[in-house]
Amino acid sequence: MASEVLTSAEYIRHHLQNLTYGRLPDGSMGIAHSAEQAKAMGFWAVNLDTLGVSILLGVLVLFLFRLVAKSATSAVPSGGQNFVEWIVEFVDNSVRGSFSGRNALVAPLALTIFAWIFLMNLMDLIPVDWVPHLAKALGVPFFRVVPTTDPNATFGMALSVFALVVYFSVKVKGVGGFVGELTLQPFGKYGLPANLFLEGVNLIAKPVSLALRLFGNMYAGEMIFILIALMFGSGMGLAAFGGVLQWAWAVFHILIITLQAFIFMTLTIVYMDMAHQEHH
Predict the structure, then answer these.
(1) Across the 280 residues of the chain, what is the mean pLDDT of every consecutive 10-residue run?
(2) What is the CA radius of gyration of the chain?
(3) Catalytic residue among 8, 202, 209, 234
């Protein structure tokens, strides 16, 4: 195991480092081989593992749903069709319960978010040493397989939802209505500075809360798996105890994985509903 050749701190840092591509200190473009090089690359660096795994899982979601849709039948459905229909019905009921407007985009958006984030979170159940060891064998210095443990991914999704919320707020209420909502609520025209501050904070808090909630929970889950993995290199007794902890945490983590996907989806629906509501 990596813990046999690395100190505990080095082992943790290695498993928490993304495969980052950007401008190296010598001015060339390439992959960072240390956390210091990755940090020096700055804002425009790209985490190739996050990007690659998230795109792959997104394509997988589309492929699986398309495969089931093409083979769907009104006769006796297959197990795959039953499962997909259950997910679609679950998401549809969530949209009906939280969205009061009329927008054909909301249900497909909610379904995509739930299925995609669930699969990204599910990668956290892969044993923490498997992918880094495979990557090392292929000459890749780092590789994190859980995109939602990278704040770049969670903020990217949250900002996309935020852009849709702002777009539909302006589309439904008009520019004047949107600006008026920011400046005239809740204290009327005489409380404009306070209104703008409160509503501005409320608006900005939406993507921040979406991103940080998902990132924080998944990052904590990954960290616990890494800490448990360290126990396997600390003697037979701790290794046996670590095996029990790993199994127990994996079972409990299934709930967290599903819950975080559901929360992100539900908040997206609620924010879209707020964007369609007009204040008079």
Answers:
(1) 66 93 92 92 94 97 92 82 92 93 93 96 94 92 96 96 95 89 79 86 93 96 93 83 90 95 96 82
(2) 22
(3) 209
